[in-house]
Amino acid sequence: MIRHTFCRTIKQARTLCLAMLALLLMGQTQALAAASINDIRMWTAPDHTRLVFDLSQKINYELFRLHNPERIVLDLKKTRMNAKTSKLELPDPVLLSIRHGKQRSGTTRIVLDVKDGVSPRSFLLKKGNGKPNRLVIDLMPKQKQVVKSKQQQPKIKQHDIIIAVDAGHGGEDPGAIGPHKLYEKKITLGIAKALAKLIDAQPGMKAVLIRKGDYFVKLRNRVKKVRAAGADMMISIHADSVKQHHVKGASVYTLSESGATPDRVAAALAAKENASDLVGGVMPEQEVSDPFIRNILGDMAKRDGLDSSEMFANLVLGQLKNGFPVKYGKPKHARFAVLTALEIPSVLVEVDYISNPERERLLNTPSHQQNLAKAMFNATKTYFTRLGRLKKHEQRIHTVHRGESLWSIAKTYGVSVSSILKLNGLKQQALKVGQRLRLPQS
Ligand SMILES: [Zn+2]
């Protein structure tokens, strides 16, 4: 009896040993199949610098800080480095340099030399939306930002009409990509900057650019920025893409009311635009406590926002019809996350189809971007003139910047050189930096 039990125990132990050996072998195979770091990108935003590492598979990593000098160290377990860190344009406002080395354990150690007071945040993004597994490191300069935003505030006069201009996508999120590899994020920024310039030259109006460079701003932060700016209106600029390359034309969208018949085309587009956060990279748990999207269409005060959005959307379409192909003649509606600043008129303009090679070429030209901006600007002017908030014939003023000529200024505002000369009583074309020029109505 005792012997029998003993035998059984031996048998069990042997099975257990074999199982353990198998597990050990499996572990070893996994150790051999190291993940590779295939690419690295850097995006410099005003409030942080983002580093993104493309990974061949999910990894484990550790992050820690070292002081004197300030460093942030990343240990990427069981990885090998295939990316070139030398391609990054350094130093950046927070990141001074980057170096890496392989450790005996198979860990790739990446050392970031950073400025004093920089705080890091890091997270992994799962594969999806055409992007591989990624490791995201955000480096944030804490103190500086507060001082800066305080300095920026007095520039806006209290009675100015503030227009929030939102260039779609940016940074990790390229948006739609044209057949010749033109990125939506590039042309939306070009048009947004041109529009902001036109708005700023209009007395009584002031533009706030929600994104100023090639970096990602998550959708809800865009809404927050619109609100923080105290904006009276929001225009979000995008370019659409479809499989059929011949499709062209602009369309204008507003937020749909709850209970309205869903528009399937618009809903599909909204889903595509709302996926921006997944591509651009938002730390997953960050989203949970954010109240904006859940308050969508919450109260009666927002009702007026919807009506005025519709009115403004029609004005934009009317302007676009003058010089551009238009895909849908009436405003369309869907639940766009970026349009949730509902108490003000908010529209999303898809200026054209970047998937159409001919339109893609046009969208990339500054003059075409300028003309699109002009159409949107005219619509804002009409809107606020109708509301009685903007005087009809108020003079526009342009302050001359370095590198500008009378010719370039005339082109920007769509007026002639001779009309500027005449209005300002100028006899010669030479300009001084800081000189204020009155501009004729175009
Ligand atoms: Zn877009």
Please describe what this structure looks like.
The chain has 3 domains: 35-145, Immunoglobulin-like; 156-386, Aminopeptidase, CATH 3.40.630.40; 396-439, LysM domain (Membrane-bound Lytic Murein Transglycosylase D, Chain A). It contains 11 helices and 17 strands. It has helices at 2-32, 142-152, 184-200, 219-228, 264-274, 276-280, 301-323, 357-363, 366-386, 406-413, 417-423; strands at residues 35-44, 49-55, 61-66, 71-76, 79-81, 95-102, 108-114, 118-125, 133-141, 161-167, 205-209, 233-240, 251-255, 332-334, 346-353, 396-399, 436-439. The strands form 4 sheets. Strands 11-10-12-15-13-14 form a 6-stranded mixed beta sheet, with helices on both faces. Helix 3 (184-200) packs across helix 9 and helix 7 (301-323) packs across helix 9. The chain binds zinc ion.
The kinds of small molecule bound in this structure are: zinc ion
Strand content: 15-25%
The top-level CATH class of the largest domain is Alpha Beta
SSE-based structural type: alpha/beta
Give the CATH superfamily of the largest domain: Zn-dependent exopeptidases
Number of strands: 17
Biggest sheet, open or closed, and with what strands and sense?
A: 6 strands, mixed
| Side-by-side strand order of the widest sheet | 11-10-12-15-13-14
| Shape assignment | globular
- SS summary, helix count: 11
Q: Write down the CATH topology of the largest domain.
A: Aminopeptidase
Q: What's the order of the H and E elements?
A: HEEEEEEEEEHEHEHEEHHHEEHHEHHE
Helix content: 25-40%
Low-confidence stretches: 23-32, 145-152, 286-301
* CATH architecture term of the largest domain: 3-Layer(aba) Sandwich
Total number of distinct structural domains: 3
Distance between the ends: 107 Å
Rg, please? 27 Å
